[in-house]
Amino acid sequence: KVLLTLTLFLLILGSSGKTKEEWKTRTIYQLLTDRFAKTDDSDRSDCPDLHKYCGGTFKGIQNHLDYIQNLGFDAIWISPVVKNTEGGYHGYHAQDFSQINPHFGTSQDLKDLITEIHSRGMWIMVDVVFNHVGPVNFDFDKIATFNKAEYYHDYCIINSGDFEGGNQHNVEYCRLANLPDLKHENPFVTDYLKNWITNLVTEYQIDGLRVDTTPMVPIQYMKQFADAAGIFTLGEVWSGRLWYEDDYIGDATNSIINFNMYYAMNNAFWGHGYSDIVNAINSELGNGKFRDNMDYLGIFLNNHDTPRFMYSHNGNDQFLKQALTFLLTTRGIPLFYYGDEQKYNGYGDPECRKPLWTSNFNEDHEYYKHVKLVNQFRRELEIWNKDFQWVSTSNVLAYSRGESLVVMSTGGYSNDFHVSISDKQICNVLNPTDCVQVSGGNVHVSGDQSDIKLYKQITTILNSK
pTM here? Predict the structure, then answer.
């Protein structure tokens, strides 16, 4: 009877998680726990070796929540929290699922962080891994609980051809980067992971999960883990092929991260035109699952596994502004990677994972102020509830979200647009003296190269201070 009561209690708690409909209202600030802020805030020296722990903690995040909230974000995605094998600063090398990573802090430190996040009306998303454990080769006794060979698939390595050639068997049953691959067909493994995620979510009152390496776990098991969590799950399905990714939307996790749009954005924001974005939108509208879930897909420009935009685009900072503006105003749940507000540069892992504390958490940075304004624009207009209408030309990316209009360009332009906006004067929140008149559903807009305009009816002036 006691066990039944406890089970019902956990189910009730688990079911209180936020839905995908609620999550679409949020903008998520992604950070690496080890790279955001130290407990000792007086030490802002650079990290001598980005391949190792640099000193970021749960307390450090808690001490700098104002920085994230002032920037306009109302959800935070943190690294996996479980204890890792030696050197697992990123969190993806689990050693003991039952313990919190001591490099990040204590269990109570994590609870204190989440309590403070919730007290601000913000939400927490935690990264989790169901696919593999840390790099112990065949020394399975170094892993807590999963300490026998029977808990893992037989040895084989996933190669790039398996992803590109559609060898799903190898993707699901072989090792990624020689990380021992958990054998989900073993009931002990699956039952343990389901109990673990239920307990993690309920004990720490987590609002959402980002699920690492989603397609490497057979869909039927991933669905069991997502159901056991009882909260919103956002799967990492790194592909860019809609016909492959759509299998996981709803059938594995509630939604997925949109790699199709990631590739399109990085191709488009070079100053040569926006056809890649238009093509990506059209392809998603032509795919039933993508079309029905566009508002719930995670949209990102770069992250902990990819080169920074500033690196891959040769320091083209003006188009970084455009890309970040699009990220925060298009359809989907924005996943904003820490450091872009400070114009961070760097190649992929580990150069894209530099510590933020060396920026001194500068809220006067030009890009910090720009992101803050765009987030205010997004939130004030609640654009996640507004229709999205394309009004683009070859060198101009323009779209309306309800009664607002977003315009960007790769060169000088002077265009008439037909918009679904009632007759009124609308002004650019980035330059409130730049106003245009909508008349009969038409509006004339002109501008210079790499312009960004966020038009709305000005009832209040958004402030970047």
Answer: 0.94
